[in-house]
Amino acid sequence: MISMNIYTDILFFHFVGMAGLFVGYGLEWVATAFLRKATTGNGARTWLGTYRLSLPISGPALLLLILTGGFMAGVTGNSKAGWVIAAFVGIVVALGMGFGLVMPRMKAIKAALPAGDAALSADALNSVRDPFVVTLIRMRAFLALGIVYLMTNKSPLGTSFAVLLLAMVVGAVLSLTAWSKNAA
Fold it and tell me: Residue 3: how many CA atoms within 13 Å on its side-chain side?
């Protein structure tokens, strides 16, 4: 049996990972919100730089969360609990959204920017104002919040998936204003 001191230390690092993940996701949220208002190359690059700051924070934080969460699920015998399975699926979905959908769009935005502080072309403006990026960022943030809810509530599998789906819907609803024609 593992001593309670080691378990509580692991739990502490799990919370540190969670805090780091939300700091990283918060930077992404803010960066993409202000990126949409950029009208020049340098203005857009500033917010892309802020977005890039999130990656070295949220990446290691997520790894810490996975390692400590996996350890705790293993020692408590909860690795097959519905909420743990749903949380793992949620993590995979969040990673897929980030690596498969957000990062390629951010690279495309960077590639569309003019040199220096020149005004953004119509294509570049469309790229920086892409509402899908905002939607994905907000959906991931609320998906992570849904996973925190699962950790505290420990719901069965079906309920856990419903919670994660609802969390992503809330994130999508909170991004509806980004889809209006005049949103910037």
Answer: 3
Contact 105, 133 (CB under 8 A): yes
Global pTM value: 0.91
Helix or strand (DSSP H, E) at 130: none
Amino acid at position 14, single letter: H
pLDDT digits (tens, 9 = 90+) for 67-126: 999 999 999 898 899 999 999 999 999 999 999 999 999 999 999 999 999 999 999 999
Element (H, E) at 29: helix 4-35
pLDDT over threshold 90, residue 61: yes
Proportion of the chain in helix, strand, coil states, percent, rounded to 5: 80, 0, 15
Cα–Cα distance measured from residue 157 to residue 161, given in angstroms and rounded to the nearest whole number = 6
CB atoms within 10 A of CB 19: 12
pLDDT above 90 covers a percentage of the chain that reads 91
Give the tokens for residue 41.
């190359």
